[in-house]
Amino acid sequence: MTLPALSPAEHALLREVHVSDEDHGGLDGAELTTDEYEAMERLCELGLVEALGEFGEAPDGEEDEREMGESVVVYRITGGGVAALAVD
Predict the structure, then answer these.
(1) What is the pLDDT of residue 57?
(2) Which region, left, alpha or beta, applies to residue 26 given φ > 0 means left and ψ of -120 to 50 means alpha?
(3) pLDDT digits over 32-84, tens only?
(4) Which long-range contacts (C-beta less than 8 Å, at least 24 apart) are formed by 3-9?
(5) Which one of 7, 18, 41, 50 is separated from 30 by 20 to 30 angstroms, measured CA to CA?
């Protein structure tokens, strides 16, 4: 398997996702800066990171967060992402 060349920003973000995944199950999408969104999108397209969405109950218990437009996205590293980091 040929691994794609990553920019320094993509590589740093991939490492951050890996550390967050090991520490607490993934990188919360709210932790991304505006500049990191494009890099994260490419990492997901390459299959190095996966974005998982979660929906839960709203505080009042009557509506769920999906209907309120509030969702949580967590980024987790894939096996391909771990392999890409191991090449370094």
Answers:
(1) 42
(2) left
(3) 998 899 999 999 999 999 999 865 444 444 444 444 555 588 999 999 999 99
(4) 3/80, 3/83, 3/84, 3/87, 4/46, 4/84, 6/84, 7/39, 9/35, 9/36, 9/39
(5) 7
Secondary structure (DSSP) of the chain: -PPPP--HHHHHHHHHHHHHHHHHSSEEGGG--TTHHHHHHHHHHTTSEEEEEE--B-TTSSSBHHHHT--EEEEEE-HHHHHHHHT-
Token pair belonging to 58: 């709203």
CA separation for the pair 88, 83 (Å, rounded): 9
- φ, ψ for residue 54, nearest 5 deg: -130, 140
